[in-house]
Design goal:
This protein is mainly α. The chain has one domain: ABC transporter involved in vitamin B12 uptake, BtuC, CATH 1.10.3470. The protein is built from 14 helices and two strands, in the order ααααααβααααβαααα. The chain has a two-stranded antiparallel ribbon. Helix 2 crosses helix 12.
Length: about 325
């Protein structure tokens, strides 16, 4: 067991280093003198990277298939926006409120559904996501419905927002690394691999599932409110099921169960979706086919393919 833990710790540490290297390379992108539109696309890509990391904590590290990551991002954005719109609360209060509110709602939902097994967890979280989106969309007096709510911005420069979101990706990845490297992370992995065996060894399965679900919800809510400050608008479209499907495809294509894979997948998938926007809904078909192919033939995703290629080329390089 000790040897397996050491192997996992080394693998996770290497994964974190690669995430840092990827983000360091992304720091150079603004030097290319990109247009504000391109910078905006990359910033939104980082927003999806935050949610992808949060969903990967559930699916990749704990084995829980939630269908509500986009809904929690929407809820986090609306908590901040509603406080600002109705009570004139500053962002410095609204952002922590969004994190706490999303975490609390995730805790309450998780306490209700996490004892369910099989497809029931996915169906329940899907129902919750749709109920939340429809409720917000129909509450015109309170949320202004489909018109959305405006939010003040944190900073005027898109380059500043670019580096800010990039920093958030690094921090969230590092926090997940610390969690997964601790003994609690070992419990989550044991639950993912065999929940019944973990419970037989005295691990409180539901409690740690609830911990992962709450943390994931908080990260999604935080990402949603930060996106709202960038776009200066939150709307029910943030919680569309298509958004969740996009997030899942990002993690599966990038590499589920890793730190670098979801970020790599988020950037590649979102950039590709923007390039395919002019050809209509074909982008949904393309990503659906890619998810099927990667889930069937390349389960470690693009990141696993990169590691395999590196392992094959390394002996050649040494010679």
């Amino acid at each position: 067991m000790s040897q397996m833990e050491n192997l996992w710790s080394r693998k996770l540490s290497r994964d974190l280093k690669c995430l840092f290297i990827l983000c360091a390379l992304m720091c150079l992108v603004p030097l290319l003198d990109l247009s504000p539109y391109t910078l905006g696309i990359l910033i939104v890509g980082f927003y999806f990277a935050l949610i992808a990391l949060a969903w990967n904590l559930l699916a990749g590290f704990t084995g829980q298939f939630s269908m509500a990551p986009a809904a929690f991002a929407m809820i986090g954005g609306y908590i901040t926006a509603l406080l600002s719109y109705h009570l004139s609360v500053s962002l410095w209060v609204g952002i922590p409120a969004a994190v706490f509110g999303s975490a609390l709602l995730g805790f309450l939902l998780g306490a209700t559904v996490l004892r369910l097994k099989g497809p029931y967890l996915s169906l329940t979280t899907l129902a919750f996501a749709e109920i939340a989106r429809v409720f917000i969309g129909n509450s015109h007096e309170f949320t202004r419905g489909d018109q959305g709510l405006n939010l003040p911005t944190l900073m005027e420069s898109r380059i500043a927002y670019y580096y800010f979101f990039l920093l958030l990706v690094v921090l969230v990845g590092w926090l997940i690394f610390l969690l997964m490297r601790s003994k609690y992370g070992g419990y989550l992995l044991a639950i993912r691999d065999d929940a019944e065996a973990a419970e037989s060894r005295g691990i409180p399965v539901v409690r740690f599932k609830l911990l992962a679900f709450t943390i994931s919800s908080a990260i999604c809510g935080f990402a949603g409110c930060m996106y709202g400050t960038f776009s200066q608008l939150v709307s029910p479209e943030m919680g569309l099921i298509q958004q969740t499907g996009l997030i899942i495809s990002m993690v599966v294509i990038g590499g589920i169960g890793s730190l670098t894979g979801p970020v790599l997948g988020a950037l590649l998938v979102y950039l590709s979706s923007e390039w395919l926007r002019d050809v209509g809904n074909i982008q949904l078909i393309v990503f659906a086919l890619l998810v099927i192919i990667f889930a069937r033939f390349f389960r470690t995703g693009l990141w696993g393919i990169c590691l395999s290629l590196y392992a094959r080329l390394k002996p050649v390089k040494n010679n």
